[in-house]
Amino acid sequence: MKKNSILLTVIISLVGFAFISCNFLTTSKPDSGITAPAIDVDSSGTALVITPTILSSTEYMNIFRYEVTGTGTDATVVENSLRCIGQNLKSAEYTKTGTVIFFDKYTDDAKFYQYYVRYRTTNGYKVSKTTGTYKGRQTDNNYKEVAVKLAGGVEKVKITYDGESAILSLNAAEVTIPNTDKDDTENPGQKIKFTFEVAISNSAQTRLFKLTEVTGVYQIDLRKVLPDQFLDTNLTIKALVGVETDEHTQGQSENLATDYYNYYYSMPLKEITLHNVNDEEISYFVVKNETELVDLLEYPDGKISE
């Protein structure tokens, strides 16, 4: 199949949330002129290696993947399959002479995918061309499209917001957090789990915030983490997501410097309900407390283009 023969049908937008709703329209993704990322297979044969074109004005990059029905000319995009699978953040400025690689370790060898990159630049967002079609590589069912899941018997996760303390909480027994493919050196025979995070939207953007488990309850004190643009406005919960972080270094062994970070996002859990402390279901909440601005991972809308 020729590259870009299947174009992702998306709409230009910076609001909303790719993991919750991604409607494919009849208009194709505009040609940005940015070369599609190169795709290869890693040495283990179980991951696709994504090498984006570098734009020197880039602040960070998000990697998008969607599923297609095959490699033939009659293949189509699988409805609602668009996912932001991760983010790349460089410790210093991106340079055109540098190389960044992103490993898609959690594909499914029974599926076919196409990819594109969204760039956050000093002049706004830009989107690359779409790649050709590539077959998934992961054969281990434990690592195929890993996801945060409902625990057995749970239909929806109940998230509680305490307006007085600005704390979000949920019962840890209601969710199952996936394992990464990394060995846990402190617990032989076990794997490191994804970090558990909540996706919160202020209607203009959706960002991830880390949840901490305390005696069987996952919680977060929003006063300590929300940036200014998330205060004094209606906030909604979009999903629960797992995040894996990789550091990539360059230089001599005695003088290693972190070059960039890859953040891998699991498939989201969106079967959730939001309640107040009186156990009344609510659709949004507001945090009015002041806090300092912090650097956060963005969880962007998959419907955007340049």
Please write out the topology:
Elements (H helix, E strand, L loop, with lengths): L37 E4 L6 E4 L6 E11 L14 E8 L11 E3 L7 E10 L2 E4 L6 E2 L13 E2 L6 E6 L4 E5 L3 E2 L2 E5 L7 E3 L1 E7 L4 E5 L1 E3 L2 E5 L14 E15 L6 E9 L6 E5 L30
Parallel strand pairs: 10-21
Antiparallel strand pairs: 1-2, 2-5, 3-4, 3-6, 4-20, 6-7, 6-8, 9-12, 10-11, 11-18, 13-14, 15-16, 15-19, 17-18, 19-20
Concise description?
The protein has 306 residues and is mainly beta.
Structure description:
The protein contains no helices and 21 strands. The protein is globular. The protein is an all-beta fold. The chain has strands at 38-41, 48-51, 58-68, 83-90, 102-104, 112-121, 124-127, 134-135, 149-150, 157-162, 167-171, 175-176, 179-183, 191-193, 195-201, 206-210, 212-214, 217-221, 236-250, 257-265, 272-276. Strands 3, 4, 6, 7, 8, 15, 16, 19 and 20 form a 9-stranded antiparallel β-sheet that branches.
Keywords:
306 residues, mainly beta, nine-stranded antiparallel β-sheet, five-stranded mixed β-sheet, 21 strands, disordered N terminus
- The number of helical elements comes to 0
Which overall shape is indicated by the principal axes computed on the Cα atoms?
globular
Low-confidence runs: 1-28
Q: Could you give the order of the helices and strands? A: EEEEEEEEEEEEEEEEEEEEE
Helical content (DSSP H or I, runs of 4+): under 10%
Q: How far do the termini sit from each other? A: 25 Å
Main sheet, how many strands, which sense, barrel?
9 strands, antiparallel
- Quickly give the structural class: mainly beta
Residue share in β-strands: 35-45%
Mean pLDDT: 84
